[in-house]
Every structure is written in C-alpha cells, then in structure tokens.
Amino acid sequence: MGIKKLLTKNKVLLAYGISLALLLFLLRWLELRFIIFDHAFEIYIGAIAIIFTALGIWLALKLTKPKIERVVVEKEIYIEQAKAFVFNEAEMTRLGISKRELEVLQRMAEGLSNAEIAARLFVSLNTIKTHASNLFVKLDASRRTQAIEKAKTLSLIP
Amino acid sequence: MGIKKLLTKNKVLLAYGISLALLLFLLRWLELRFIIFDHAFEIYIGAIAIIFTALGIWLALKLTKPKIERVVVEKEIYIEQAKAFVFNEAEMTRLGISKRELEVLQRMAEGLSNAEIAARLFVSLNTIKTHASNLFVKLDASRRTQAIEKAKTLSLIP
DNA sequence: AAGAAAATCGTCCTAAAGTATGAGGGGAAG
DNA sequence: CTTCCCCTCATACTTTAGGACGATTTTCTT
Questions:
Q1: Inter-chain contact B73–A76, Cβ cutoff 8 Å?
Q2: Which of A30, B38, B116, B117 is deepest in the core (most CB within 10 A)?
Q3: Looking at the complex, does the CB of residue B84 fall below 8 Å from at least one CB of chain A?
Q4: How far apart (Å, rounded) are the C-alpha atoms in residues A31 and A48?
Q5: By the CB < 8 Å criterion, does B144 face chain A?
C-alpha cells in the first residue's frame, strides 16, 4: 500500500498534510514579521517531519498486524435428516420377534408376496406362511398391511 | 467536510500541529540561546526524524479503523421428526389417480381390509375392489403392499 | 447332554384379495 | 346436447393370504 494511495484514501491523513503545510506558511509569516533567519532550515525541518511521519505511518501499517474485529454471524442451516432410522431392538425383544420373522416382515413391507419372499429366502412357501402367521399374532395384526403399519410405528422397519 | 471542521473536530491533528510548532520554536530557541556544536544540525534532524516517526506510528495505530471480519458460523439445526408430510399432487395428476382412489389408498395403507374400507366409505366391497384394481394398474403394482410402498415413495401418502 | 427356542415344512380349509368384464348414473367440458 | 371421466355396483373366476393343526430338524443355552 503506497503513501499516495493512503493519502487519497484517508481524509484524515490528507487533512493532516494540509495542516502541516499551513503551519509551515504560518512559520514563514512569523519569520518575515519578526526574526529573519535562514528560511531553508524550517522548510527542511518540515519536510523531514512530513517524510518521517509518513514513514512512521507506513511502518505502523506494514509491521503491525491488521486490526480485525471479528463479528460472528450465526447462520442457521436447516438440515432435513434422511430420516435416520433407528431400529427398536427393545420392542423386538419385547414382542418376541425372531430374526427370521423380522426378515420376512421386511420383505413384506417391500411389497413382496409370500411366494416371492420364499424364493428370496430359499425356503418353502409354507415356511413363510408360518412366519407370517406368527408375526401377526406377535404384532396383534390380522393382515399383512396392518402388521407393516404397526411395525413401522414401532420402528421395527423403516 | 472542511479542513477547519476537521481540525476542530480532531484533537489529535490539532495537537500534532501544535507540537510541531512548539518543536520548531524550541529548536530555534536552542539555536539562539546556546552555542551550537558542529554536528548540531544532524542531531536536530535525527531527533526530528525519530519524533515524527514515532508520531506517525502512533497516528497510524490510533486512526486506522479496525477491519471488520464477518465470520459466518453455520449452525446446524436438525428438523425434528415432526417432518410435515407434503402431498405430491403433481404425481397424483401424472398417474391419473382420482380423489376416491386416493382415499382407498390411504385406508389401505392404514392396514384396513377391503371390507373395512367399504364400510368406512359407505360403498360396496365390489366398488373398493374396482378402485383397488385401478390403483394397482396406475401404480404399476400387483399387490396392495406394493402399491402402498410405491405411494409412500411418491409422497402420495405419509 | 437335555431342554428350549427357532426354523423348517406339510396339509386342509376358509377368507380375502385380485382379475376381467359389463353396466348405470352423474357431473363437467366441449 | 353429447362425450368423457369418475364413481358406483355386480357377477364370475383365479390367486393369494391367512388360520389351525402337526411334525421334524437346527441352534442355542444351561
């Protein structure tokens, strides 16, 4: 960041420079009025003062860490959770539902028929029927759709 | 904003100008009063330089505005499972599902049998069967459980 | 090793679900 | 007014689901 830029940028510094110039003129006026000495001396001092003031400012700006005022803005982000399904194992234990029965239940909820479930689990249709019947008793349901509904509210299936 | 106003407003600048003037007078006074050494001029210059450098540094530190850094902190908020169900009417229109059919679909998802649905909607069992059949065609399902699954993923039912 | 629980499979039967087809009434749009 | 869609209902039939037994085999626990 150059001095020129600084001066044009900062009104305060500009005013400062102008005031210094005015001061020098004042001195000259005083000089003319009262004591007459070497004019060059005051001008030189003034120039030195300006230069080193600028140098001081430059030094300060360059060498010091920039003042940073940290403003923390809290931005609320609403995250729609992908419905993190947490399996309710306690409920499964309470109802006495076995692992195999749960598997059948899951497939039933997927919309598969008993025959399809039997094929996927490599067992006979009768076995699936038995599991289904046991499930209905344990879930207190009389239809598979009802069983699915109950199982979902109990977080046994997503 | 005029210079005059700036000067009267900013005490720092005023003090600075005055100090410069005083310094010059002091130097002149010293020059008049005492005998100047050979290197008096260099000493003056050095003193002026040091003083005004310090002044410049002080000025810079005092007058620079702190940079405001806006830190955006993202606060994650997880939506509770009160997750409002938004009915996908577009999908219903696309599939050509009628109001009555949707009603039947909803009851089916609740686990009701066709007979129960018929009783609740005050129509005959055959009517429900017809609606169900039409639904299966429109939803490309062959079972009610499958229809329910599809309808749920399409946000036709919660 | 014995017992309990779980998983498997079967049969018989009934109930419910699903398919196919036809048909009548009513409302909305052309 | 006529056409189209929706809702309604019916009949006849097929398929699937579900209930009620019993039975054998694994698997785990004690």
A1: no
A2: B117
A3: no
A4: 19
A5: yes
